[in-house]
Design a protein that fits this description.
- This protein is of the alpha+beta class.
- The protein has one domain.
- The chain is 13% helix and 32% strand.
- The chain contains one helix and five strands.
- The chain has one helix at residues 24-35; strands at 10-14, 43-48, 54-60, 65-71, 86-89.
- Strand 3 and strand 4 form a beta hairpin.
- It starts with 9 loop residues before the first strand and ends with a strand.
Amino acid sequence: MIIDYTKVKHIYIVCGKTDMRRGIDGLAGIITDQYDLDVYSDALFLFCGGRLDRFKALYWDGDGFILLYKRFENGKLRWPRKHSEVKKLTEQ
């Protein structure tokens, strides 16, 4: 299964620290309960925990969720820490 994430309509960064032990249901719950966004839309949601060397991505591909996990061997992310918001990335 190959997905071209460059063609995803919306990409959201969930700011703040997310409990990285959460799975698909827990992350989808954050999107729907805390931010009132449609987790089934053509959107990729990005989450980061306290350690800035890893992140998770959640995507609905039409018949199920895809959960991606990335850990950097070198370097760290610069992640927005204000937990009360979601930032929408748009093409610039």
